[in-house]
Write a structure and sequence with these properties.
The protein is mainly α. The chain has one domain. 76% of the residues lie in helices and 0% in strands. Helix 6 packs across helix 8 and helix 9 runs antiparallel to helix 10. Keywords: Cell membrane, Membrane, Transmembrane, Transmembrane helix. The chain crosses the membrane at residues 12-35, 55-73, 94-118, 138-156, 163-181, 220-238. It comes from Chitinophaga flava.
């Protein structure tokens, strides 16, 4: 698994695409948080990072599929997936190596955003009034969200040898899981009880809960379960494609 992990990291940073994806993520965050007046942290009148945690999931909808779209698609396109399957590695080791490698890249893209916290702390009249617990909870939620999107991206990449198709499938699926259930719950036909359960089925409900700084075991179980489900589906997809090609 470690070999797969290292290969994933090296493959990403040996291409210009990797650097461009992370730079665009940071530039987009910087523009929205410090330049554009409607979302600027400097115009809110109080020190917090709420705009970052509201904006980052939407950017992740594009960034993470861009990171994961080549994980398995390129392996199928170049024919190295068949070779990889003959190595003394289990299917779970292959999937988990790809998952942890991709997730580390997501975390690397997240680390520079701590500069925003430092900037807000320096600009704040009373730095001690910053809700550090809430910020830590929000970063935890963003990490869990990134892990879910990574798992969805891997599953999408396992479906096709075309990286662009994998990207589009991942963007659509991530959006449905993040915002689709919440949007569906607002249909009048589901009001009166069903709307609440529909919201609970979506990522946005649990991300918002964790981002408030309250780490609830139910939210953690939800994220871990969804990650496990998508990785299991990825494993099944890889096995099916190799059996069909064999």
């Amino acid at each position: 698994m470690l070999a797969i992990f290292k290969k994933e990291i090296n493959q990403f940073f040996n291409s210009v695409t990797g650097y461009v994806a992370i730079i665009l993520f940071l530039v987009a965050n910087g523009l929205f948080l410090f330049v554009f007046p409607d979302t600027s942290l400097l115009d809110t009148g109080y020190a917090n990072l709420d705009p970052l945690f509201d904006l980052a999931p939407l950017i992740y909808l594009l960034l993470i599929p861009a990171i994961t779209m080549r994980c398995f698609a390129d392996e199928f396109k170049t024919g190295t997936m068949e070779l990889l399957s003959t190595k003394p590695l289990s299917w779970w080791q292959i999937v988990m190596g790809k998952f942890w490698g991709s997730l580390l890249i997501v975390v690397i893209s997240l680390i520079p955003t701590f500069v925003y916290y430092i900037a807000i702390r320096q600009l704040s009249i009373a730095p001690q009034q910053l809700d550090n617990g809430g910020i830590l909870g929000a970063y935890t939620g963003l990490f869990l969200l990134g892990a879910v999107f990574t798992a969805i991206g891997l599953w999408s990449s396992s479906l096709t040898s075309n990286a662009m198709i994998a990207f589009l499938i991942a963007v659509f699926t991530c959006y449905i899981f993040y915002n689709g259930f919440d949007a569906l719950s607002k249909i009048p036909a589901f009001s009166g009880g069903a709307d609440y359960y529909l919201q609970m089925a979506g990522i946005k409900f649990h991300y918002a809960s964790v981002s408030r700084g309250v780490i609830d075991s139910r939210d953690i179980i939800y994220f871990i379960s969804l990650i496990g489900l998508m990785l299991y589906l990825t494993k099944l997809s890889l096995q099916r494609k190799l059996w069909q090609n064999g």
